[in-house]
Amino acid sequence: MPAAPSRSAARCATDLDGTPLPMIAIPVFGYRNHISIDRRSGFIRAAAVTSASHPDGRMLRQVIDRENMGSEFWADSAYRLQSNEAWLADRILISRTLAWRY
Fold it and tell me: CB-hemisphere CA count at 13 Å for 4?
């Protein structure tokens, strides 16, 4: 009876002859929508579409409409970067970015 493969070997992809293939990044396909919504009316004020592999936090400045906004900013934890927090503070916006705790 052959020995059971180790946990790390079980996770590795293998070639046809059984040799392990190098671990590479798995591409992500699809897209993401980044939107800014008016809190009172629910209308979309600004939008941007990116590939699914593009980091969310980099899209913050493209979707904020400072002309039509209150003093608070609500967002998912993906937008919680130090550079974004500093950018919001410079514009006197209160960040209500969610902080997930696991």
Answer: 2
CA–CA separation, 10 and 51 (whole Å): 31
CA distances from 29 to 41, 52, 67, 90, 94 (A): 33, 6, 34, 35, 34
C-alpha to C-alpha distance for 21 and 79, rounded to whole angstroms = 35
pTM of structure:
0.57
Task: Assess contact for 100 and 76: CB atoms under 8 A.
Answer: no
Give whole-number Cα distances, 63 to 1, 47, 54, 76, in Å.
60, 6, 15, 13
Q: Is the model's pLDDT at 9 over the cut of 50?
A: no
